[in-house]
Amino acid sequence: MHRALPVPVTVEAIAERIGATVHGDGRRRIARLASLESADANAVSFLSGRRHARSARESRAGALIVSAALQEDAPAGAARILVADPYAAYALLSQWFESLLVPVRRAAAIDPSARVDVAARLGAGVDVGPGASIAAGARIGDGCRIGAGCAIGEGASIGPDSILHPNVVVYGGVTLGARAVVHAGTVIGADGFGFAPSRDGFVKIAQLGSVRIGDDVEIGANCAIDRGALDDTEIGDGVKIDNLVQVGHNVRIGAHTVIAGCVGIAGSATIGARCMIGGGVGVSGHIEICDGAIIGGFSLVERSVDEPGFYTGAWPLQSHVQWERTAATLKQLPRLRQRLRGLEARAGEPKDSE
Amino acid sequence: MHRALPVPVTVEAIAERIGATVHGDGRRRIARLASLESADANAVSFLSGRRHARSARESRAGALIVSAALQEDAPAGAARILVADPYAAYALLSQWFESLLVPVRRAAAIDPSARVDVAARLGAGVDVGPGASIAAGARIGDGCRIGAGCAIGEGASIGPDSILHPNVVVYGGVTLGARAVVHAGTVIGADGFGFAPSRDGFVKIAQLGSVRIGDDVEIGANCAIDRGALDDTEIGDGVKIDNLVQVGHNVRIGAHTVIAGCVGIAGSATIGARCMIGGGVGVSGHIEICDGAIIGGFSLVERSVDEPGFYTGAWPLQSHVQWERTAATLKQLPRLRQRLRGLEARAGEPKDSE
Amino acid sequence: MHRALPVPVTVEAIAERIGATVHGDGRRRIARLASLESADANAVSFLSGRRHARSARESRAGALIVSAALQEDAPAGAARILVADPYAAYALLSQWFESLLVPVRRAAAIDPSARVDVAARLGAGVDVGPGASIAAGARIGDGCRIGAGCAIGEGASIGPDSILHPNVVVYGGVTLGARAVVHAGTVIGADGFGFAPSRDGFVKIAQLGSVRIGDDVEIGANCAIDRGALDDTEIGDGVKIDNLVQVGHNVRIGAHTVIAGCVGIAGSATIGARCMIGGGVGVSGHIEICDGAIIGGFSLVERSVDEPGFYTGAWPLQSHVQWERTAATLKQLPRLRQRLRGLEARAGEPKDSE
Description:
3 copies of one chain form a homotrimer.
Chain A: E1 9-10, H1 11-18, E2 21-23, E3 29-30, E4 32-33, E5 43-46, H2 53-58, E6 63-66, E7 79-82, H3 86-101, E8 115-116, E9 121-122, E10 127-128, E11 133-134, E12 139-140, E13 145-146, E14 151-152, E15 157-158, E16 163-164, E17 169-170, E18 175-176, E19 181-182, E20 187-190, E21 195-198, E22 201-204, E23 211-213, E24 218-219, E25 224-226, E26 233-235, E27 240-241, E28 246-247, E29 252-253, E30 258-259, E31 264-265, E32 270-271, E33 276-277, E34 282-283, E35 288-289, E36 293-295, E37 300-301, E38 309-312, E39 318-319, H4 320-330, H5 333-346
Parallel strand pairs in A: 4-5, 5-6, 6-7, 8-11, 9-12, 10-13, 11-14, 12-15, 13-16, 14-17, 15-18, 16-19, 17-20, 19-24, 20-25, 23-26, 24-27, 25-28, 26-29, 27-30, 28-31, 29-32, 30-33, 31-34, 32-35, 33-36, 34-37, 36-38
Antiparallel strand pairs in A: 1-3, 2-7, 21-22
């Protein structure tokens, strides 16, 4: 359930926070930020698009963040908080509510069970959780929070005001920018997957590069971002990566690109800036995706994408029986095409331009 | 290799344990539970279906759990342990053998290297492994075993008799029911993936919801189950989840649903009760899968599924050369269909109802 | 950036190390191993195939490892280091450079914060990182390095000269061979996914088998390799596994097979020796892949593969609009085939052998 604020805030205070104007009772007290469906009279909710209009009209929210164009869809009696972009306003408000909800933080401290090497350099106000270890030569910027059980390798560098949740592993030499958020269990800087075949099996290629990550990057839980073979793996400013994502060695990801969960990016792929990569996508090695491309979920990007646009490749769901028939026929597709061509020739059709 | 019981048990004792009757030598001593192929005279095995009948006849097992209908397939000389459902009987027996195999457990204890906050509440008989940390306000039910290196966040709650294997991370406020089993490295309650676009890049949406997990839930290794944006992510009683599964924010999974490995479930998807989701499946966001649906491995569920049944969508494997031809032709499929229609019109065929 | 060697080496020393001959200035000093694109006069690079010839000619590398056949593509002025297999030579050289780059290792030691059970047996020169735990009966071979936060279960065995990076979890009874490399966050030996249906939900099948891993195996970050139900899960000598790979219970993988990232292998699948499994591949349970098979990335191996060769199954990427049309037509494929057959019959074509 939504946690209630220990001290409710007024509708006016909310409007001021997000730069909005109020229509209705600005002094109403609000204790929760809630979805349209679960809001009650003590809750503020938001309407971010016409497809939720019906839910908005039926909502019991005491206040609604809404655009002028959709304000008629506010539930009767609710205070309307008018703003140009309700979704962005919701994002800002969620951060404010979180800051009000989180229990008073104790002073930053290094837990006695943490192991910080004498040759590591920690900035001011750094918090290190139980059992975390920070190796020689590592640098942790001011205001960082290093969660329980994190392991920071030799010479790694974490920019200021970053949050590493528990059990994150940062290998030696890896660099993270300012305000990074890394969720639990993620591994940054493990060896890229490189082996040279030989008569006696594979010979390991030592991965001499590193990983360089820009500012304002968020990485989800249990991801694996490999260090480069010779050059570095690079992730640009503002990139957002969901859970269980693999980033191979020497991958480069441009600024403000968003990557959903379970994506696998093979070695030396280059992804442009402001791309959106859907969940479960695979990106083949050594290809390039241009700036601004959108890849639909579960697609394999097996070739370079040179033009911005929306791309997809995924088998649509069918009943299993129909799928079996379709899959069987699929394998005959080249032959079917040939037969079609034969019929056309016989019918005297002009040769298709295929 | 199968570990042998320190003290063998009789065929009769096994039969009693699983509510079966014995045909043959009930006093034979059994030290191992083994597959048909690797069983020897000291081992009990089981026959769970006709397709294993040949392996059963050729097995060297000293005793066989089998249904009355298939008892003729028992190897000559083996004691037959007759039961209605040999597979369920095997499951029960495996638990008994495990309890006999596991070395005597030491008394529950909090390892001196663990960090348990004074404001955490631990039930009776709780075991906390080396280096684990339990934050203020967390509640750990009676009889729980918290593995080495686990991190339990503020105000999280773990139901009684739960087992968290090493390095599991439970974020603040997350609730697990009774008898949970969570395998190593799994992360529960990391932030859902929510960002609002703005001119200056993405604005993080604080994830104010939590995760609520019912009773008797098992979760595999290195999964990531995100907390909700506003409402909670919910996993029902008896749900079983394999390894490396991603559950996005505000997903709801009904009771007794089974999810195989490497599945990715995007935000706000709803999966019904008693579903079976095959390995590597992707589930798109904001869709619903009804109770009792079965999704074949490697399928993308890109739309809601309203009727129970077996659904699949996955390209069948081909030789690479054939695949190249098929994939090239696939892209022409809409054009081929048009050409077919043209030929039919020319031939005076009645218009297909497509 | 490439780290520079603290003390540069000569071209001759490099050649001697990899069994090569030098054409040009053998006394030139080299401080870096670099890609063709980022090499400078102090760097050695390598040319491993004709498709990189142009990059080689334009490179600023001071020395180039190259085959006799391609030596004309070396940049003007660069020392040529001639060798039969430049890629394998690069692999060897990368290992040498790494050994020169890594700061002098402190003597092997057990960190005071590590918890090593009195009934564990550690070989000579074993290094145990902060917060790692080693349970009773575990055996750690000579020269092993156990990273921070690793948890080694009861009776597990790690062969000599193995490296476990931080936060690896090895469950009880698991066996790793010599010279294993396991990257951070990987979990070996969690329970296989086995439940027997019953009226009251699923009954857990205790996983009594274990995991046996051969010599010279490398496993990437955040993988999950499950223990067997009755028999063991087995991974052969020299197998290389990338990140985020799931290996189900009772899977067997033959020697020197290579498995790329994000692969999911379902229970009881058997993969032969010297196979190459591409990224994101799914392998269904209870099937067999023969020795030497190559599976293209993102394919589902839903049936056994009996002949060595290159196999693929993955939808090619399309623009989203084209994909929508193709996907809609795909579902009609069996019907299209029928209509084609109808037209052929009408045209008096001989019946296709399909």
